[in-house]
Amino acid sequence: FVRRTRLRTRLAPRPGAAAGPMLAPAPVKAAAPDPERLLTLARGLGDQLIASAYSDGERTNWIGLEPVEAAYRAHWRVRAMGADLASGCCGPALFLAQLAALTGSERYRRIARQALVPVPSVLDLLAERPEDLAVVGSGAFTGVGGIAYTLAHLAVTLDDPEIADWVERAVPLTVAAAESEDEVGLLDGTAGGLAALVAVYRATRSPAAWRGAQACAALLLTRPLPVRPGYARGAAGIGRALMDFADLTGDEDCAAAGLAALRSIDEALPALPPCPSQTSWCDELAGIVLAHAARWSGASSSAAKAPPVAHTLSGPWARVLTTPLPDDSLCHGETGAVEVLGRAADPELSGAAAGRAAALVEALGVRPPRCATPAGVVTPGLLTGLAGIGHGLLRLGFPDHVPSALLLEPPIPPRRPHGAP
């Protein structure tokens, strides 16, 4: 489960992506999909995940495709899933726990819990080998921060005190990784550690998570802003992480640095030519819009200081964002696009969300889900696979019950299962 090499996950458009036609454009004013239909589709994906799992009755894991980067070209390897959130067991565990909370299904709950059984051993090994922490990193998707984030979610969603204890073990490891790593982005670096610990604190009120978030924020302020503008490894994700921390703590230095990061994108964006390939969540336009929309849709006092250019995209950029995509994934595909469009302030973008969602639901009713892998090969993970597609469907149907994993939102305490008397 412990990664021995830094996962520089290449989540840009893939060669050999899913075959077949893209979704047909849907009417802008289409009705939002029925939540019951979305839940049925999500349950089908949950059942597919369980059917493809390997279990000994006590622990559960999957074989999946994992993207790695070598010589600036996308490569994939087949392996038992690691412990991270992006491509590891934390992704299916998170989705199945959310599905269990909505349906009351003990089956989904049990498999979600079993998927995390090896995680304490991973944390123990990292504590014994601190030199590995710089390799694993604190990132929210490929690092220890994502493990802490997932554990906090399942501790709350499943009301599990033992998992809550594991959260407290993951928090100091996230800080130690941040102190020893070079990466600063949300995906694999210190901004991700910060965002994860802010979510952990909001969920648990853990003093250790509070102190850890302060440490990560202080580290992030000392590091130069990356040139790239994107959400996963660039200025958009860093800016949003700093401003979320500022909202929590009132830290004016972090608010100023976060605002400067987002403004740097606004200044650069008009010079970029709109291109249909620039739509992914990770390093391209969709993630930039997502960071801005989430930041400026809140009630933060810092949010009111300057509306960003990217927050009011229109014309050619809007047409790029409303172009159908070749897969259904949370990172590159339709579920991620609908999340972005639904949060945008521009009417041309937000109005397209229901149409895209309706087209996605119609497509999933007549064909299998398409993962963001070569030829659409099925993989279980969150960003490119079934867990993320299922999570996206739950977000569409039950946004008040299912927090956004892309935005690293904290867990929502479960209510009565959907449809229960």
TrEMBL record:
Transmembrane segments: none
An example Gene Ontology biological process: peptide modification
Pfam families linked: LANC_like
InterPro entries: LANC-like
Domain of life according to the entry: Bacteria
Protein name: Type 2 lantipeptide synthetase LanM
Species whose genome carries this gene: Actinospica durhamensis
